[in-house]
Structures are given as C-alpha cells and as structure tokens.
Amino acid sequence: MPKKKSSFSRWYAYFSGAAALLVTVTILRYPEAAFAASLDGLQIWFDIVLPALLPFFVMSEILMGLGVVHFIGVLLEPLMRPLFRIPGVGAFAVAMGLASGYPIGAKITAQLRRENLCNGVEGERLVSFANTADPLFMVGAVAVGMFGIQEIGWTIAAAHYLSVVIVGFLMRFIPDKGPPTVSPSAPSQRGNIISRAFRALEDARVRDGRSFGQLFGDAIRETFSSMLFIGGCIMVFSVLGRILDVAGITQALHSWVAALIRPSSINDAVIPPLVRGIIEITIGCEAISQANASLLLRTAAASFIIGWSGMSVHAQVATMVRGTDMRMGPYIIARALHGTLAAVMTLVLWRPIAAATAAGLPLPSMGLGAASFLARLGMSFRAVLTATGLLAGLAVIFNLIRSVRVVFFRVRP
C-alpha cells in the first residue's frame, strides 16, 4: 500500500510540474492576451467582488469574536441538526453565504471547524450547503449586466436556491466518522434555550478576550489578506481561460464534447462558454450570454455555471479550508450536483415565472445598474445587517413556536 501511494505522489508531482511548465510557456507565447486577461480579472475583483464581500468578511469575524454566532447557533440547533445534520451555528454560515456569495460560506465554515463548533464531516456538509452565489450577482451582474433581461435573474436565483437546499438535504446522508461534535464551549443544558443561548454568547466573549478595537483591527487585517488572495485567484484563472482560448485548447474541447452530445440535438454553441465557465464563473456567464442559442438554453447553461461556480472558486474554497480535516471531494461532487439541479430547475420554473411576470406580478429591482464602488459597498453592508437581523429574528420566532403548548379540554356531556 505505501508503494502505491508513493507511486501516485510521484506521478502527481510529474503531472503538476509539467502542467505548470506548459502554462508558463503558453503565457510567454501569448503575453498580450495574458496581460489583457489579468486586467479583466482585476477589474472584476475591484468592481464586483471586493465591495460585495468586504463587509461580510469583516462582520463575520466581528460577530464570531463577540459571540453572536454562538448565540444564534444554540437557538437554531433544534432546526439545523434534524434537517441537515449540521450544528446550529451552521445557520450563520448559510445565511451569510446566501446573502453574500462565494466564498464567504467556506470561510465561515472553516472558522467554525477550527473552533471545534463542528466536526470534519459536518463541515463538509455545511460548506456544500453554505457556499452559494448571491442575488446581487445573479440578478444584477448576470441577468441585467450580461443578458440585459432582469426577469430571468429571478428564475436563475429561484432555481439556484431551491437546488442548493436540495443539495444541503442530500449531503446529510454523508456517513459520520464519529459522534456529532459537542463543542467544549457549549453551555450546560440547565435552563431554557434562551438562557443557554445567552450563556453561550457570554462564554464565547470571555474566551475570545480581545477588546473591540483589537477585534476590529484583526478583522480588517484578516479580511484584506483573504480579499487579496481571492483577487489573485480571479486574475490567475482569468489568464488561464484566455490562454486556453488563444492556444486552441478550448476549440479542441469544443469539438470533442460536440461529438458526444450531437445525438441529443443540444445546440453546441453553448459548449465553449460552458468550458470557460468550468474554469471561471464570471467569464463563463458573460460568454454564455452572447452564445448563438435560445434564451432558455442560455439561461439554463448560466444556471449550471453559477451552481458549479468554477475552478477559481474551488481554489478559493480549498485555501479557506486548508489546515482542517475537511475533504474537497464531497464539495466538488456537491457543486456538480448543484449545477445540474439548477439547470433542471431553470427549465421547470421558466414558464411559471414568465407567466407571473406577464400577469403583472412585481419583481424587486436590485438597483445595480452602473453602481459605483461605494454604492455597491453600501448595498453589501445593508445586506449583511439584514441577513444577521433576519437570522436572529428567525431563531427567536422558531423557539417561541417550540415553546407553545397546545392544551386540549374535554367537555363532558
């Protein structure tokens, strides 16, 4: 067995070294295309990703340090554990991921694992559920900015979120390696759930011990370190996608995949954008919006790309969870399943949402347009405050409902 593992490691080293050398030579062969692609990636990061993620990264660090996440976790444990087999604190990661998008869900999940608030398998379930695209990207960037049709954004968003809930439920069947984690910080079971939640908040704050000024400074420092890494990933994979195009590799893959799907009568004009989307989500969505295919097919393909999220996001997730015992295999499988389900759900929801729109049902506007950096930053801050407030409110309402006792009276004749 050790010999097989050593042989695999040796061949993996050979392959990765050869691939890196090939990419480097290709970049040197096409320097203008590589430079233009890197600038495109930098612009995407600065105009879209940085203002969208910055408040969420900062606030997640602060809320963890203040113990608010622990408070919410105790209140939502009776909901998250039976449905998804993840701890209650996972609800915070899910809410932040739904509101902000990739890769904040992975970052928060890794934080929870490092603080022993979930075990490795629970973390794998959670990161597959919590790491999603955000509505600003799906409606504002993809539907309005790329397709020029806001209404399809709500079809994409509905398909995306419905399918990710299905994925989250299916991930509960990943077998446990051991008993569910009980954090050493968990409060005693004395008292009602509200008092236990407040004790969890107090205990977490005492254990952290940092002043608010130090906590805020640490949050800013950690956030910008993560944001610079994300920007680097976007630029590198933007260059990689462009190099594959100019080197003719994308066209070769197109021909090979087209031969495979030709019997299904699917328009093969969507194949090159799908190949780009497998590598980088934004570039793939922009390419699919311009493909020579029907609007329905292009929208379904965009849903697949957004659900899959791209190798660039996968690299970001791998770095976020590095140092934990969480495996990337279940996450990759979940993303492929999510993309497939999102494409199918888009086909299913296309007519109902179109009919609702035609009937005059008002759809909210994201108001992005050509919003400035500060405007996008403000929208993101409002989103993180709204998500946190809704999550805390949901926790309180859920536990008030659980505390209601129905009393039956029998009236004797």
What does this 3D model show about the protein?
The protein has one domain (29-359, 368-403). Helix content is 77%, strand content 0%. The protein is globular, with a radius of gyration of 23 Å. The model has no long low-confidence stretch (mean pLDDT 81). By secondary structure, the protein is an all-alpha fold. It has helices spanning 2-29, 31-66, 68-84, 90-100, 104-114, 120-130, 135-147, 150-170, 193-208, 212-246, 249-261, 271-279, 281-289, 295-308, 310-320, 329-358, 373-403. The longest helix has 36 residues, at 31-66. The chain contains 17 helices and no strands.
Order of helices and strands: HHHHHHHHHHHHHHHHH
Question: How many domain modules?
Answer: 1
- Main β-sheet, in a few words? none
* Total number of strands: 0
Quaternary assembly: single chain
- Overall structural class, as computed from helix and strand content, comes to mainly alpha
Query: pLDDT average, as an integer?
Result: 81
Radius of gyration: 23 Å
Which keywords apply here?
single chain, 413 residues, 0% strand, globular
Question: Summarize this, please?
Answer:
The chain has 413 residues and is mostly helical.
Helix and strand topology:
Blueprint (H helix, E strand, L loop, with lengths): L1 H28 L1 H36 L1 H17 L5 H11 L3 H11 L5 H11 L4 H13 L2 H21 L22 H16 L3 H35 L2 H13 L9 H9 L1 H9 L5 H14 L1 H11 L8 H30 L14 H31 L10
Helix pairs in contact: 2-10, 2-17, 3-9, 3-17, 4-5, 4-6, 4-17, 5-6, 6-8, 6-16, 7-8, 8-14, 8-16, 10-15, 11-12, 12-13, 13-14, 14-16
